[in-house]
Amino acid sequence: MQDLTHYIDGAHVAGTSGRFADVYNPATGEVQARAPLASTQEVDAAVEIARKAQPAWAATNPQRRARVLMKFVDLLNRDMDKLAEALSREHGKTLPDAAGDVQRGLEVVEYCIGAPQMLKGEYTDSAGPGIDMYSMRQALGVTAGITPFNFPAMIPMWMFAPAIACGNAFILKPSERDPSVPLMLAELMEEAGLPKGILQVVNGDKEAVDALLHNDVVQSIGFVGSTPIAEYIYATGCANGKRVQCFGGAKNHMIIMPDADMNQAADALIGAGYGAAGERCMAISVAVPVGDETADRLIEALVPRIEKLKVGPYTAGNDVDYGPVVTAAAKQNILRLVESGVEQGAKLVVDGRNFSLQGYEDGFFVGPHLFDNVTPDMDIYTQEIFGPVLSTVRAKSYEEAIGLAMDHEYGNGTAIFTRDGDAARDFANRINIGMVGINVPIPVPLAYHTFGGWKKSVFGDLNQHGPDAFKFYTRTKTVTARWPSGIKEGGEFSIPVME
Ligand code: NAD
After folding, report:
1. Among 284, 391, 425, 455, fewest CB within 10 Å belongs to which?
2. pLDDT tens digits for range 431-475
3. Are residues 278 and 391 in the same domain?
4. Is 19 within the bounds of a domain?
5. Are 182 and 331 part of one and the same domain?
6. pLDDT tens figures, 204-246
């Protein structure tokens, strides 16, 4: 059994708290490693190292800082296969999907190479008589991020790339379920030239998170994970005077209009609903066909596609559509919700409950499920399932369909499939959800745009990556300067006297 470490001050460091979390191989169900769970003292020691290292990094000119990120991109590409393998082994997602996880983070790093341009301040010459005014964007100091299990490469990079490009030190508290890739990323950043102590990884659970929330040196906290924890971290961090941005859960609706290309919509739903076993915050978990005839056609198109899905371990390479879910507890929770759907009267059109994979009976595999006739009062509709379960809610009209998405407490992503530009435009304008796809099922914005939901999917004012990240990870300082007239008119030869 391998004992994983923290990454502190440029070195792998064993945990000293005596507490550990099991890290599984979800495909086999075996415990393959233990992640140390940091104590408050271990977190505070890392923060102190970061505090000492940060001023020199902030004083390094922005172009030199960006060069570290440039080199880091090369190293990510060099080690892509190794990173993807380590990621799949702990998370369970397929190898191509794991490489995509690294790639989407890498794109944020590429964007942050432009930090010198983003950090330029503003300047007004002669704002008053002899007065100039200028603003600077200065690093916050020590920043921290708490990340979820489902994107162990991309989400840490969403946070640490801009934080570090801006001159901050960053402490990453990754998910205790799959901490190996975050540790590898920290090593690669130092190989790329990052000074020790600027990016540290502290593994842990609530105790480590609370230590970060209550440490006065920590200036900002970024969080991505489930909504109850997002709410807790936002409230506690703000109460402690920190800058906080928290991203929570989701229940993403896809509306299928009667005029949609049904094959295109069904293909899109298969990828968006079942890809990564549904463990994506931008997964589509609710299909809303408009009209019974549309719903019947949709179900008819979906069923054969779902029956063809290949569920298996990442070691099957490209020959698998999705892998196991992350833990036995996650699997039990998904199956519990499926049972509740059946009990509450939804029609289980594709039943994956008895799914079992020969040779991997102890793995955390969940077969694909499709529900029809789901109603908004059911638990499978109100709760985030985070598994390969697609719920169909039949709407009588476009207004009813858009109303469903708008009334749901989550507001991360949504999509409409239609050939009608007017409906699509109306949808994009009225919907109270942060990321909208038009004939695109998973509308994840690219690195140079910003990522963020609305409603209970987000707590805070600024989005992830894009220009917002440079606002989140810096403070603006505005200087108004007037200089007394100098000696430019020549030396004064007679003794000055007061008039
Ligand atoms: P989670 O909330 O269980 O854990 C997220 C992080 O919080 C982990 O680092 C964990 O160690 C820590 N944590 C857990 N319990 C805590 C507690 N009581 N106090 C303090 N910290 C605690 O989430 P998860 O299961 O890792 O990830 C899945 C969730 O993340 C889903 O709800 C998904 O929708 C959401 N998610 C959201 C986005 C987004 O951008 N909105 C992106 C990815 C995932």
Report:
1. 425
2. 999 999 999 999 999 999 999 999 999 999 999 999 999 999 999
3. yes
4. yes
5. no
6. 999 999 999 999 999 999 999 999 999 999 999 999 999 999 9
User: What is the total count of domains within the chain?
Assistant: 2
Distance 153 CA to ligand 1 centre (A): 14
Residues 229 and 357 in one domain: no
Nearest CA to ligand 1 atom 19: 206
Q: Chain centroid to CA 309: how far?
A: 26
Residues 343 and 232 in one domain: no
Q: Measure the CA–CA gap between 267 and 18, rounded to whole angstroms.
A: 48
Residue 170 lies in a domain: yes
One domain for residues 226 and 278 = no
Question: How many residues would you count in the chain?
Answer: 499
Q: What is the pLDDT of residues 80-100, one digit of tens each?
A: 999 999 999 999 999 999 999
Residue 152 lies in a domain: yes
| Distance (Å) from CA 456 to ligand 1 centroid | 14
Domain boundaries, position 383: 252-438
**Is residue 486 a part of any domain in this protein?**
no
- Distance CA(97)–CA(321), nearest Å, equals 9
Nearest partner of 340 among 286, 374, 384, 378, judged by Cα: 378
**Triad 428, 430, 434: Cα angle to 5°:** 60
244 lies in the same domain as 274: no
Catalytic residues: 281
Distance 260 CA to ligand 1 centre (A): 35
pLDDT tens-digit readout, 117-128: 999 999 999 999
Using CB atoms within 10 A of its CB, is residue 309 exposed (0-12), middle (13-18) or buried (19+)?
middle
